[in-house]
Amino acid sequence: MSNGKTGRKALSWVWLVLGLAYFFIPLISTFLFSLKGKKGVLSFVAYQHVFADPNFLKTFTFSLQMSIYTILVGLILIVPTAIWINLKLPKVKPLIELFSLMPFVIPPVVLAFGLIKSYARPPLALVSSPALLVAGYVVISFPYIYRSIDTGLTSIDLKVLTEAAQSLGAGWGSILFRVILPNLRTALLSAIFLTFATVIGELTLAVLLAWPAFGPYMAHVGRDLAYEPAALAILSFMMTWGSISIIQILSRGIPGSRSNVGGLH
Amino acid sequence: MGFIELHGVSKSFGKNTVVRNLFLSVEKGEFVSFLGGSGCGKTTTLRMIAGFEIPSSGKILVDGKDVSNVPPAKRNLGMVFQNYALFPNMTVRKNIGFGLKIAGVSAHEIEKRVDEMLALIHMEEFANRYPHQLSGGQQQRVALARAIAVRPKALLLDEPLSALDAKIRVRLRDDIRAIQQKLGITTIYVTHDQEEAMSISDRIAVMRNGKIEQIGTPFEIYNRPATSYVASFIGTLNLLEATVVDANNGIVSIGSMKLKTASSLDRMQDKPVKLTVRPEALSFANPADPVTADTNVLSGTIETIKFLGSTVRYVMKFGDTFMYMDRFNNPQLELPKKGDPVSVIFSKEACRILPADEESANSLKGTEEEL
């Protein structure tokens, strides 16, 4: 019995090491490659080039701005919708879940041409407005926002908490801001950072709608330069992991998360 | 006029009618339990009173006002839920003070009222804990305090103890009753546990198929059940199919046995009826005891013996009929064995006659397969 247990444990370690190697070897290789900007020595010169390029900051700032708008519009549209569906229209939920998969099924290029075709002429000539780009980003982010919020809503007993608040005299404003949203903090943070990561790296919509975003900049650098794209890839990776770490840190302090001692009867 | 009144209240979900033309009057300060099996409409009725469901027809009056279409937030009725429904993001103190804050009560008054509530539920030292740091029993006590902190017109409890283990359930139900009596608050309590309903209520409304089958004090419901459903839902019961053989003298037959009853059997000669006898009404016949004309005596054999702690339940066979008998446990006495011959006696007053054409709740009929 003991031999079998040891064997299983060893096998688990082998799988873990293989998994970590699969994940880290390309990352380490990319990182090492990004340090070879100067012949013969390892240096951060590629990173210096990236930061020195004015387009880096310009495109990054633009995408950051767009991501903030996308997050705001997305949350304002999707959070109340998800709450309402969970509370009042649970039968519609499968339909909304199907819709939320559409951005994965329909290529962004189709969405971009659809937007251009629909909003190129008056009275809705929005092609030159960043609002159309934000609208497109909201569509692309819909699955991430909706599914994060829906998971959060499923983890709390939404209906009963709402009814408990109602029985104590609370109106919808109080229920939303004092009861539901504070209990959705982790879900909201997930939605925010997933949207941020999606918008920051998005290429197709930005290219086809002709906006100077970070995605097209990365593609441009990747086409024309050697070491800088590797540096940018590492920077993007760090941003993503930074976002995930922030979610972890912020959700650790959330009251009501089940990490503490049980009480006595 | 009652403090809470239901006038012909019905509720349908699509084609499914859950509550049917219900009439009920609950007096101020009274503790009324809705008791019944799953799907009998008890929770739906409570939810209509709370305002979470709108009646399909009929009226609900609270303190003389029609609240049928008033939203729950405006009814000022405290509600306690089965799964506590405490706000996970708030401490015990903030949970209890939530309703007061919504009502715009001053911070000082909230603090004072919350302290009173914490003292009432004996949980002062848990004020700053979060719900997940409390046991189920503690969470439900906080939920109770939260519901009554706003001084509601009435308290509604929807199976508040069903998620708790047996010992805590008993302790908490006593606490609920004590707090209710101390505050004199009108209370409606939903449960499927007949022992819970009997121990806590001023009156019990036994519900079935969306209707109140019988309403009365626990004593009335247990001792004078109006239907065989009520009789068999509350406690254990010998429910035997009988035929009236002598209506004038209250005598019925069960197989070859003839039993005396104290019931009026006018116009029921030769008709099928159901005879009910509580297991505790039976006792072993002692040769020294005189057998009077009012006593039924049956001779049969012991079929099984169930030791239940404080009581011992005997299943006995009399001809083709099986019956339960409950006796207090006595460590000095040796228990009989299966197949031992026994004689049992019970008074004719212990027999109750009910109409034959009714379905019973637990079907504790005297048939072999069910015993």
The assigned structural class of chain B equals alpha+beta
Q: Mind telling me which CATH architecture of the largest domain in chain B this is?
A: 3-Layer(aba) Sandwich
Reported for the largest beta sheet of chain B, the result is:
6 strands, mixed
The main sheet of chain B orders its strands as: 6-7-8-3-9-10
Strand content of chain A: under 5%
Instruction: Characterize the quaternary organization of these chains.
Output: heterodimer
Provide the domain count of chain B.
2
Number of continuous helical runs of chain A: 12
CATH superfamily of the largest domain in chain B: P-loop containing nucleotide triphosphate hydrolases
The tally of beta strands of chain B, per DSSP, is 20
CATH class of chain A: Mainly Alpha
Q: Return the string of H and E elements of chain A.
A: HHHHHHHHHHHH
| Amino-to-carboxy terminus distance of chain A | 40 Å
Tell me, briefly, the overall form of chain B.
Answer: elongated
Let me know the average pLDDT of chain B.
90
Q: What is the alpha-carbon Rg of chain B in Å?
A: 25 Å
GO cellular component, one term (chain B): ATP-binding cassette (ABC) transporter complex
GO molecular function, one term (chain B): ATP hydrolysis activity
Family (chain B): Belongs to the ABC transporter superfamily. Spermidine/putrescine importer (TC 3.A.1.11.1) family.
Function (chain B): Part of the ABC transporter complex PotABCD involved in spermidine/putrescine import. Responsible for energy coupling to the transport system.
Structure notes:
Chain A: Keywords: Cell inner membrane, Cell membrane, Membrane, Transmembrane, Transmembrane helix, Transport. Chain A: It comes from uncultured spirochete. Chain A: Belongs to the binding-protein-dependent transport system permease family. Chain A: Residues 60-250 form the ABC transmembrane type-1 domain. The complex is a heterodimer of chains A (265) and B (371). Chain A is mainly α and 265 residues long. Helices cover 77% and strands 0% of the residues of chain A. Chain A contains 12 helices and no strands. Chain A has helices at 2-34, 45-52, 54-88, 93-105, 108-118, 130-155, 158-167, 172-180, 185-201, 204-208, 214-224, 227-252. In chain A, helix 6 runs antiparallel to helix 9 (185-201) and helix 7 (158-167) crosses helix 8. Chain B has 371 residues and is of the alpha+beta class. Chain B folds into 2 domains: 4-228, 3-Layer(aba) Sandwich (Rossmann fold), CATH 3.40.50; 236-355, Beta Barrel (OB fold (Dihydrolipoamide Acetyltransferase, E2P)). In chain B, the strands form 4 sheets. In chain B, strands 6-7-8-3-9-10 form a 6-stranded mixed sheet, sandwiched between helices. A 5-stranded antiparallel sheet of chain B has the order 13-12-11-14-20. In chain B, helix 2 packs across helix 3 and helix 3 packs across helix 4. Mean pLDDT of chain B is 90; it is low at 361-371. The chains are: A mainly alpha (265), B alpha+beta (371). Chain A binds chain B through residues 156-157, 160-161, 163-171, 174, 178-179, 182-183, 254-258, 260-265, and chain B through 50-52, 71-79, 81, 83, 85-91, 98-99, 102-103, 126, 129-138, 143, 146-147, 150, 168.
